[in-house]
Design a protein that fits this description.
The structure holds two protein chains of two kinds. Chain A is of the alpha/beta class. In chain A, about 30% of the residues lie in helices and about 15% in strands. In chain A, α1 runs antiparallel to α2 (about 40-45) and α17 crosses α19 (about 500-510). By secondary structure, chain B is an alpha+beta fold. Chain B has a single domain (about 5-105), classed as Ribosomal Protein S5, domain 2 (2-Layer Sandwich), CATH 3.30.230. Chain B has helices at about 60-70, 90-105; strands at about 5-10, 25, 30-40, 45-50, 75-85. Chain B has a five-stranded mixed beta sheet with strand order 1-4-5-3-2, covered by helices on one side. The chains are: A alpha/beta, B alpha+beta. The interface between A and B is medium-sized, with 19 and 20 residues.
């Protein structure tokens, strides 16, 4: 048998990379440093039409200078790029499509540009690949969406290309690894080029060029919630969550989504949580960003470990001063890592709790609205039952044992279930009902030509809904009819809620499938801001012993 | 912005009497409301005067207030509400807080 090797060359990619780097060679000032004024020329030298390109940007730090420079590139040279990136929250990310430089988009989170994403998909300026979760997109970087060129960002670099990403390491390692180990090109914008780095987060031989940007990269304090804005109603929901879910199941590991409800929960741990005797029994291991509202609970000794997706502005010194709790480098500063935190949030944690804009009558939920392609970032990975999970824990087993239909799926073999909790008021902003007959995601799918409506959390993954009316224990529902009845029972005065039948709700309460505040032994008149361990930003600073340094816009004293 | 006023007279299914003392709860801050609740002989009824910047939600207000009256069996009481875009959940919570405080007074 003869071996026919029709391909003469197995190194076309590295040869192509070498040619591109050769074209860029005259632009290097010293070592791997390229001056900011030569950035556009550098991009034109190393990027080719049709390339798969990543611009580092997630919901926190942004390679904003490189995104702006790419927009200035000569369109006759660089066009039809296929952008693969976590998020497109900057105007410049969408300008690439407006300007004809980019054509196709695969992403996870739209953020403030969600309206333009929908518009551009509608008018053909964006060819949408798919909306992913972070982990799903990271996975595809190593499969069929490997970047040819990645534009990343770091705090500091040296001239050998070593990067210090520090507190906000976030997505950088996963992007660089996928790109560089498939012969791609990595360009980093940094706030400062120095001789000596505090520590090396990305080794220099994985980086092709470093540029000191004219101003520091943009970063958003996305996870800061001012306790002054927490309402009594959010405190009522938080009390129900602690007593009816955290305490009931003994949930020790979890992710808290962004929002005032989870902030309220964090701030009543040292008060109401302590009163319930839950210290040491819940919330010991958390996958969250360094939420300022966690400071009182950390200080009171509730938490053993926190791993972070990213940093949070102002929390640097506090986190660095609590190395028993956070993941700190040899240099003494936090290293966040979105890919690992998402992995932990997906597989290792027992619970996800967050909010949403809409829940349909079946329990599917979405933050998608008719005119905005926002994406869901990491929520679906944590807000789902990870089918690959094999390690048991108390909360996971208890939730699994409750499933009346488990035996129809696995026979006599026991299996646990992740707790996935949505905490919502029945009416949201502008008195928009949260409980709806059909999700707006269906309208969006039609408007933006999507194959499927973008659902954040599917009904079969959702185990609990908490509203001011009470808790619906969906994990205890034997069929869709019971599940829909439980949802109606906590849907308040929304049209869905008004279809609840009193005798049906009574039966659900007797079966422990629905629990009102009084069923839980909670007096709503106790739900006041007096329960908050910190009532404002100043209190958080005091709790931190002056280590928390809130961004200027949160300094209201 | 023009304010919308809604006046309702509700009758409890089973009258349990008025609140003990006049009480004021809450502030008319964003997404919140203030409630003034006081005993007044009204032939067993409850009179509600509501001022809100939002229009188009009268039936919803009536359902929320109806639920509150049913849950408390309140009678012979006057309630004034000054609303600033509170959700029904907040409305009910404040009403219950006012009810508890008025009877504790």
């Amino acid at each position: 048998m003869t071996h026919h090797d029709t391909r003469k060359d197995w190194r076309t990619r590295s040869a192509d990379t070498a040619a591109r780097k050769e074209a860029a060679a005259p632009l290097f000032a010293k070592g791997k440093e390229v001056l900011a004024k030569d950035t556009v020329a550098l991009l034109e030298a190393v990027i080719r039409a049709g390339d798969i390109v990543n611009i580092e940007g997630n919901n926190q730090k942004q390679a904003d200078f490189l995104a702006e420079c790419l927009n200035q590139a000569d369109k006759s040279k660089i066009h039809d790029l296929h952008m693969v990136q976590s998020a497109v929250p900057l105007k410049s990310h969408l300008d690439l499509f407006e300007n004809g430089i980019a054509k196709k988009l695969d992403f996870a989170f739209g953020g403030p540009q969600a309206g333009r994403v929908a518009e551009f998909i509608g008018n053909g300026k964006i060819q949408l690949g798919a909306i992913h979760t972070y982990l799903e997109l990271f996975g595809r970087y190593f499969l069929d969406l490997t970047p040819r060129v990645s534009l990343v960002c770091a705090y500091k670099a040296d001239r050998k290309g070593n990067l210090y990403t520090g507190f906000n390491t976030e997505d950088t390692p996963v992007i660089v690894e996928a790109t560089k180990f498939k012969d791609g090109i990595v360009i980093a914008q940094v706030n400062e080029i120095v001789d000596e780095l505090p520590r090396v987060d990305i080794p220099g031989d994985w980086v092709d060029a470093v540029i000191e940007s004219p101003k520091p990269f943009f970063i958003e304090p996305l996870f800061t919630r001012d306790p002054a804005n927490i309402t009594d109603n959010q405190i009522l929901l938080a009390m129900m969550c602690l007593k009816g879910i955290y305490g009931e199941y003994g949930v020790t590991s979890m992710n808290h989504g962004i929002g005032f409800l989870t902030s309220a929960i964090e701030l009543i741990l040292p008060t109401y949580g302590a009163e319930l005797g839950l210290k040491g029994k819940i919330c010991t291991h958390m996958i969250i960003n360094p939420h300022p509202t966690m400071i009182p609970a950390i200080e009171e000794g509730w938490v053993e470990a926190i791993h972070c997706f990213g940093g949070e502005l102002g929390m640097e010194d506090y986190v660095a001063s609590r190395p028993d709790i956070f993941f700190i480098g040899p240099d003494g500063t936090l290293r966040s890592n979105r890919a690992f935190a998402q992995t932990a949030g997906h597989y290792a944690a027992d619970m996800f709790i967050g909010g949403t804009l809409q829940i349909d009558k079946y329990g599917n939920s979405s933050t998608a609205t008719a005119g905005r392609v926002a994406g869901f970032g990491g929520a679906p990975n944590m807000g789902c039952d990870p089918k690959g999970r094999r390690h048991p824990s108390g909360a996971w087993l208890k939730c699994g044992e409750e499933l009346p239909s488990l035996d129809t799926l696995t026979g006599s073999v026991p299996r646990g279930k992740r707790l996935v909790v949505q905490g919502v008021e029945t009416f949201g902003e502008g008195r928009k009902p949260v409980f709806v007959d059909e999700l707006d995601a269906w309208k969006l799918a039609k408007n933006a030509n999507l194959d499927i409506p973008p659902v954040m959390i599917y009904g079969d993954d959702l185990t609990h809904i908490v509203t001011e009316e009470g808790i619906a224990y969906l994990s205890r529902c034997k069929d869709m009819e019971t599940r829909m009845a439980a949802i109606r029972a906590v849907a308040g005065f929304t049209d869905i809620g008004l279809t609840a039948k009193p005798e049906e709700t009574k039966a659900l309460r007797e079966a422990g499938i629905v629990k009102t505040p009084s069923d839980l032994g909670i007096d709503p008149s106790r739900a006041t801001r007096d329960l908050l361990a910190a009532k404002n930003m100043r209190d958080l600073v005091t709790w931190s012993g002056g280590l928390y340094n809130p961004p200027a816009r949160f300094r209201n004293w | 912005m023009a304010l919308h006023t809604l006046e309702l007279t509700l009758e409890p299914a089973a009258a349990a009497g008025p609140v003990k003392a006049p009480t004021h709860i809450g502030v008319t801050g964003s997404s919140d409301l203030e409630v003034l609740i006081q005993p007044e002989a009204l032939d067993g009824k409850v009179a509600v005067k509501l001022v809100t910047p939002v229009t188009g939600f009268d039936p919803l207000w009536e359902r929320v207030l109806r639920k509150f009256i049913d849950e408390t069996s309140l009678s012979d009481t006057r309630i004034e509400i000054n609303d600033n875009n509170a959700t029904p959940a907040v409305v009910l919570l404040r009403l219950h807080q006012a009810f508890t405080a008025a009877n504790a007074a």
